[in-house]
Model the fold of this input.
Amino acid sequence: MIAISIGIVSVIVGIALLVNFARIAERIFDFYASFMRTGSATPGTIRLVGGVAILVGAFWIVTAVVPSR
Done:
């Protein structure tokens, strides 16, 4: 049950980052850019992290749903 909950939260956060819901990816980038050194990261990098979060969340959900042998 905990694994499914973690998976669902991860997928929801990933979708919010990927589609930039309420400009969340841009706001997170602005927050970290204020104290990190300059480089080649963009708000698109944060959106990419959202895509990875969706995959990780899907993994958590699948491992919780598929019965072990």
